[in-house]
TrEMBL record, chains A, B, C, D:
<dbReference type="GO" id="GO:0019265">
    <property type="term" value="P:glycine biosynthetic process, by transamination of glyoxylate"/>
</dbReference>
<dbReference type="InterPro" id="IPR015421">
    <property type="entry name" value="PyrdxlP-dep_Trfase_major"/>
</dbReference>
<dbReference type="InterPro" id="IPR000192">
    <property type="entry name" value="Aminotrans_V_dom"/>
</dbReference>
<keyword id="KW-0663">Pyridoxal phosphate</keyword>
<dbReference type="GO" id="GO:0008453">
    <property type="term" value="F:alanine-glyoxylate transaminase activity"/>
</dbReference>
<keyword id="KW-0808">Transferase</keyword>
<feature type="modified residue" description="N6-(pyridoxal phosphate)lysine">
    <location>
        <position position="202"/>
    </location>
</feature>
<dbReference type="InterPro" id="IPR015424">
    <property type="entry name" value="PyrdxlP-dep_Trfase"/>
</dbReference>
<dbReference type="InterPro" id="IPR015422">
    <property type="entry name" value="PyrdxlP-dep_Trfase_small"/>
</dbReference>
<dbReference type="GO" id="GO:0004760">
    <property type="term" value="F:L-serine-pyruvate transaminase activity"/>
</dbReference>
<feature type="domain" description="Aminotransferase class V">
    <location>
        <begin position="54"/>
        <end position="289"/>
    </location>
</feature>
<keyword id="KW-0670">Pyruvate</keyword>
<dbReference type="InterPro" id="IPR024169">
    <property type="entry name" value="SP_NH2Trfase/AEP_transaminase"/>
</dbReference>
<comment type="similarity">
    <text>Belongs to the class-V pyridoxal-phosphate-dependent aminotransferase family.</text>
</comment>
<dbReference type="GO" id="GO:0050281">
    <property type="term" value="F:L-serine-glyoxylate transaminase activity"/>
</dbReference>
<keyword id="KW-0032">Aminotransferase</keyword>
<protein>
    <submittedName>
        <fullName>Alanine-glyoxylate transaminase/serine-glyoxylate transaminase/serine-pyruvate transaminase</fullName>
        <ecNumber>2.6.1.44</ecNumber>
        <ecNumber>2.6.1.45</ecNumber>
        <ecNumber>2.6.1.51</ecNumber>
    </submittedName>
</protein>
């Protein structure tokens, strides 16, 4: 069926998996007049934000922040820890583990991979085996994407730490928490994560522009001997500054936003934030599973214990174009969906369900997707929205 | 089933029939620094707004504006036209026609009513009969609520004007367009309306605070002899000012908002704005009609040719409390519905579908209402949302 | 000298005496999404605002609020208290006392005036004499503009109350506090004021759109027997509503702003707010007095004990046009000054120094005015700004 | 004299040399809801911004943008052009040339310096001599800070290009335009600049968070052979993307702001923007020169032909603490001044006069500084503000 684009009206339903919806109160906080980043009044805000960020990361160790996107924090984690030719073990998860590996190679590091089926996720046993095989301890770090945004799958970080310990391997554990932090349970210190990479624009519900790394004492020791060239991201440079983060100008606006973000998160409570994400994610999955009947779209992730509660990738039946579904959703209904990344381009679309989200937002999105499937001629079992509603009504009934 | 309130998260779905959702670009325009209302730069904005407001009213006659709500414009229409003891013919439509009549009585006017069943609407024949019976032409004006916000029903103004003409009666025609202007077709000059009462906070998508009246040349003539005391609302006072509206300070902020509102409306085109309202309203009605089977909730309005495209009132089955449904929608799903007004309190709830609205917004709302009906134990035929989706997908398919 | 207009750049210095500068935090609070004015979450904000407004008014009696400008609150004070033909004693102060009197006459009331020289202010003895002469107690109310915005002069309300008491006259005392409340000391209950008329757009630093009246128990008793027609402003109608204010829609946006305004005022403390106004006002006066030498501009107000701390009117020497000075300040320096009102048009310009103001704002304004005087060829003793700086530096030195 | 801090009220006068004042319309544009950076509607905004940025840079060659601060763009310019051990010739200008050199060394480059007196600026002859002496053409690039923010001095880039040409040296010319672009005349192509480093937060009047480099064809050729490790800043990576800039998420919010920034700049006209900066800067200098009499504060820059029109550094007389002056200005008058950087700490303070600025803003600042000098007991010739006013009035009189 041909669908004529309409002038967008009403609020856009932003169902990309990131950046995410920004609550109005954060938008207004970010729209702050310029201040001196050394002004005592700003420093009080700043210090509160750093303390709050540590609570969200669940760490009492160090945090370094960057004016940059999530990729900046990735790069910071590497140039601060490693020397040219160092070896990393990257656990394959999807597009973002590939990108992280490519960045490491760009920077002159050697990458070994734990290969994985993107629909099932890496086997922990394979991680342990790879480490056990590295008797010389050439591997300096294990890189794990906590929540693979491209596929909607979680890696169980505690199991990976357990595998590292079981192998008696001294490598550092680096976790990309960009699309999990503030949405899914994450505990840097308790789980033995050495570097946690995060950004402003996902669970923290801020605009893109600030990213950060939680850094363990062990990682700080590794930093002392790293020889990759670095300046903008250099932790040692940062420690010499009042802010103990940032080289150059501090993006003050985002800290006013972060202060409000932390207020919202802690008002709700981290546990309740996670529970809300789990509830809405389950609604999406029930909807998709309903559609699946009769060769319809399927959940891309085939490992139920690794479903992501912040993003769901949906695989279209062979011969159908996910980009067409996305275009119809956008042009006819003002709903913005995520596309397939890398080798998944055109094959999947993705629904982000993280950040400032509630039932009618997710149901309005699912209803629009169901209509877009119909208009795109993608076979599916109608009634997915009703399945999602059954679940959400039941969940509401249980308080 | 007991529903535990949740901390509101995500954007509230505001499905009250007014005030309405304010687009971000209007919110930001309204957040304007203070300016001198006589500053030439502001006067240019002001003059453009007045011209645009006339285009929306479809009038080339006068417009007067007030710092005030819609009730202010009602009062302005009366104190500027009438003298103590004058008689008005109010066509009963619901809560707002009652209120208008009561205001007239408060101000010392005499009210005759054309009685009507609130679910079916007044008969045009009865209007004509009332006028024909007034051989002495005591009736100075016919008061018609174009769109009765409390019941979701439209009065056909051209038919009323035709009835007045048929009766050869010289009364003025006053129309309350508060919840129709900018949402439903309205043509002041073509339809022979003498005074059109409107407000900022509905189809114009602005905050509450500014209201206005379109005024015909005939109404200006009546104004010249009116003796009700007036000052704040006095048109003659206004004509002596540069702004030819307002007594006292001009609410400059709202004009920056109005400029953006008019830009949005005219970018889309009034006809397309009306078509969008009609499309979304029909989705609501198909949903409610689906629920209705087996003693479920019903459309309050029983006259299909008078369905309102800006608000729908839904009557609960006997013994069920509409306020409970509203409370659950608000507390569990962050959806704000309109309640029953006056004698309809507890019996109906209302869904506003006017202003800056699109498909996922209305579907997210309907889905939440369907869940709230379930949680409140109100009998209904599940699947109303699917019926709405059928319609909206079909409409999108037709471009 | 000819001055070519420039495109305005930088922030406009808004030195009109009202509306006033709105702090960013209030602008952002006002840019609130629409809410249901009966929503419990809003009602909590609303109730806090009403309580805070009473603290600013220093009353424990009633407050009624209106969607409207200050003139709406004036009209409300009259239609709620009086009956056709009732007599008011208006103390002449300037343009606004004239306007108030004219409004009373528009509404069918009889006005007696205590005449006054606008540059010196009314004599309290004349007020007492007028009351003493009214043995029949025909005068129902004394109307006093606490701070005459057109001339920059204050009326000592406690002295007026004392005069009323001395005369043993039962009239009500109505005070227009529009440009004094939140800027100058005002104590409704302690000073025996029966109705205090105020608006959002001055000391409360909000956009225009909400006004209010504090109402004493004695005034409520008078209301019970008043016979002027009223509906939109009717206190009795209001008392029947949950909000005990407003007829029709509540302007919710402004209440989010008012909540922030009250927070700012009470964070600083009312006494400190008044002290800041007094300090900045004295800087303006010292500047003008310095200019005055050799037939320069003069303070319009000739009674030092009645200087207004929220606005200063400056009288130009004969033969010089105040509007030209204003135009140059606006076009060359982006400084907006107040003009002369009514019979003072062209003769005076006014500097508002109320609301959210500090030293560099007032000094930037005064410097621009001094340059504008020069460019307009108005004789003056240069160095007024230095005189203001002497004072402000001394004041800062004393903490 | 002891100065008691006051609670800040009124708008802060932000007279730091950067970040700069952000106009309200830009703040509101930046407060944009999240969008997909691949959404066609966003891409249209993005492409317009890139074209506009090129007009401001006066280049038709390449532009690469980074989520990062100005230091990120510095780093990008180095890692994209050079290989380990490459030599740069850094022209000493002050704190920022030192920092740039230090960053180069951090990244493994070799730095030669053209030493200079910070108060007089480098001699062009010394630049030419250094290049002429480099017969082997070991110097890969000349690094020049166009406007040294720490001292308020400009380097004449055309003269440097002429010196390079005169020496027949093939080195690239890298210019830091962070505090000049959009404030001072700069012409990348005409002046033969190979890399121009700029940031969002100065003349473009945006929040900190986006920086960029204009890149010549010659620089692109050098890029092709550079071997410093790079990923986040890698131009080749960027060219493979639709946006031809950014690795990772695009900071969409800032582009809505940039669109408005470009609109403001081009509405005024670049030449008029520069003229405004020159006019206001001259006012500051005349004020400071007036203060200087009798061992008062002096202009730090001793070379009048190199005065910066975007920032002025002011040297306090021996034995006086610039930080105390800054603290008093902040705490007593809510004026934020820049401090002395590096070896100038405590010796100078700086007034930024760039971006969205006008006469009353600069005069309010100067008046506050003069009061702060007095309160801090710093000797000075009072009347600097009057000297600034004389100049500004004269300039206004000339249209």
């Amino acid at each position: 069926m041909d669908v004529k684009p309409r002038l967008p009206r009403g609020r856009q339903f932003f169902a990309n998996p990131g950046p995410t919806n920004i609550p109005d109160s954060i938008l207004h906080a970010v729209a702050h007049v310029t201040v001196d980043f050394n002004d005592p009044a700003f420093l009080a805000v700043y210090d509160r934000c750093v303390a709050g960020l540590k609570r969200v990361l669940r760490t009492e160790q160090s945090v370094f922040m960057y004016t940059g996107s999530g990729h900046a924090a990735w790069e910071a984690s590497m140039v601060n820890l490693f020397s040219p030719g160092d070896t990393l073990l990257v656990i394959e998860s999807g597009y973002f583990s590939e990108n992280w590996a490519r960045m490491a190679q760009d920077l002159g590091l050697v990458v070994r991979s734990v290969a994985a089926d993107w629909r099932r996720g890496a086997e922990i046993g394979a991680v342990e085996a790879a480490l056990a095989a590295d008797a010389a301890h050439e591997i300096k770090a294990v890189c794990a994407v906590h929540n693979e945004t491209a596929t909607g799958m979680v890696l169980p970080l505690p199991a990976i730490r357990a595998a590292m310990d079981a192998a008696g391997h001294p490598a550092l554990l680096l976790a990309d928490t960009i699309s999990s932090l503030g949405s899914l349970d994450f505990r840097m210190d308790e789980w033995g994560v050495d570097v946690a990479v995060g950004g402003s624009q996902k669970g923290l519900m801020l605009p893109t522009g600030m990213s950060f790394t939680g850094v363990s004492a062990r990682a700080m020791a590794a930093h002392a001997t790293s020889r990759l060239p670095k300046s903008y991201f250099n932790w040692t440079n940062m420690l010499a500054r009042r802010h103990r983060s940032f080289v150059g100008t501090v993006p003050t606006s985002l800290f006013y936003g972060l202060e409000e973000s932390l207020r919202l998160i802690e008002e709700e409570g981290l546990e309740q934030v996670f529970a809300r994400h789990a509830r809405l994610a389950e609604a999406v999955r029930r909807c998709v599973r309903h559609w699946s009947g009769n060769d319809g779209p399927q959940l891309f992730c085939l490992s139920p214990d690794r479903y992501s509660d912040s993003v769901t990738a949906i695989l279209l039946p062979e011969g159908h174009d996910a980009e067409r579904v996305r275009r119809i959703a956008l042009e006819a209904f003002n709903v913005s969906l995520g596309g397939g990344l890398g080798r998944l381009g055109g094959k999947v679309f993705r629904i982000g369900h993280l950040g400032d989200l509630n039932e009618p937002m997710i149901l309005g999105t699912l209803a629009s997707v169901e209509m877009a499937l119909r208009l795109a001629g993608v076979p599916h079992n109608p009634g997915g929205v009703a399945a999602a509603m059954d679940w959400l009504a039941e969940a509401a009934g249980q308080g």
